[in-house]
Automatic annotation (TrEMBL):
The modification 4-aspartylphosphate is found at D57. This is Response regulator. Residues 148-219 form the HTH luxR-type domain. GO terms for molecular function: DNA binding. Residues 7-127 form the Response regulatory domain. PROSITE patterns: HTH_LUXR_2, RESPONSE_REGULATORY. The lineage of its organism: Bacteria, Bacillati, Actinomycetota, Actinomycetes, Streptosporangiales. Keywords: DNA-binding, Phosphoprotein, Transcription, Transcription regulation. It comes from the Bacteria.
Length: 221
């Protein structure tokens, strides 16, 4: 699946970084259909090209505050089929909470200095484009420590560890591999999280997404 060509709109106010990223993504099989240096340019490019994913920096001209994330929230509202990958130097808890308020599917938040390989970034783009979630562990940790933690505090250390990995987009099998435990053990921890978060089974059974959203909502601003 990773050889599927993704269509990407890239928003970054640094021309050097933007051009370098566009070149690297092209080498990795992505099609950068447009680049943008400001939030209005980003919105216009997404409306015009309808990419698989929009890569967004939080702080963009003219004020260098939250223009990027406001544009991302607008894209999310107007074109929910477009994945959003925030790529920033900063962990902005309020911004992350705003973006995740209507669901975590198709959302990513990576920190520039913590992406060691281009392949990791491209993998995250594919995951977000496929409706998954790609959250840097530091972002998740800061969300955990940032606010009310009533139900989160009921989790054991291992249950919290499993939920953090779920929030990063890992499957039960992937979590089992990372934690060096059986997949059955992971399933038990996930079931315990569902129980503690008050998430009974339903026909649609989207408890996994709801658990992550509960985790992020209670741990946000």
């Amino acid at each position: 699946m990773m050889d599927r060509r993704l269509r990407v709109v890239l928003a970054e106010d640094s021309v050097v970084l933007r051009d370098g990223m566009a070149e690297l993504l092209g080498v990795r099989g992505c099609e950068v259909v447009a680049t943008a240096g400001t939030a209005p340019e980003l919105l216009a490019a997404v409306v015009e090209h309808r990419p698989s994913v929009a890569v967004v920096d939080i702080r963009m001209p003219p004020t260098q505050t939250d223009e990027g994330i406001r544009a991302a929230v607008e894209i999310r509202a107007r074109m929910p089929e477009v994945g959003i990958l925030v790529f920033s130097q900063h962990v902005e808890i309020a911004a992350a909470s705003r973006l995740l308020a209507d669901g975590a599917a198709g959302i990513g938040y990576l920190l520039k200095e913590r992406v060691a390989r281009t392949s990791e970034f491209v993998d995250a783009l594919h995951r977000v484009a496929d409706g998954g979630t790609a959250l840097d562990p530091e972002v998740v940790t800061r969300l955990v420590r940032g606010g009310g933690r009533s139900r989160v505090d009921t989790l054991t250390p291992r249950e919290r560890e499993v939920l953090e990995l779920m929030a990063q987009g890992h499957s039960n099998r992937s979590i089992a591999t990372l934690l060096v435990v059986s997949e059955r053990a992971v399933e038990k921890h996930v079931a315990a999280v569902f129980t503690k978060f008050g998430l009974p089974a339903t026909d649609a059974d989207n408890r996994r997404v709801k658990a992550v959203l509960t985790y992020l909502a209670e741990s946000g601003s």
